[in-house]
Amino acid sequence: MSILAKARIEELEQAWAGLDAPPNYAMLRRPETGLVMVRGRAGGVGSQFNLGEMTVTRCAVRLQDGRVGHAYVAGRDGRRSELAAVFDALLQDAAARPTLERTVVGPLADGHARRKGEIEAKAAATRVDFFTMTRGN
Length: 137
Prior knowledge:
Blueprint: H1 2-6, H2 9-17, E1 25-41, E2 48-63, E3 68-74, H3 78-90, H4 97-125
Antiparallel strand pairs: 1-2, 2-3
């Protein structure tokens, strides 16, 4: 679900278009946008504090066979949350899951890893190493 939630809309649309037979589904909860409180820890280990609010969009769908999919995605893109919810429902089919993991989830994970690597490389290029020198003894 994390991979689906982090995928770009273009990637989800491409995966949707690549399905042999896109399923029919009904909306249980149409895409809704709201705010959630994000919490953090100083240094990753300190006491929790409220960092701020973040916009999220959620959606829930039901496939014709009764499987239900849910999605929460960062931002305001209703279509993105809808597609993530449909793929969540599709992945619940044990027979179809291996194919979907290979053709949908795998490429989405690769795209996310590539983007993360690019961000890390950009941040590393601006890194400054500070050190302290002591005088004398």
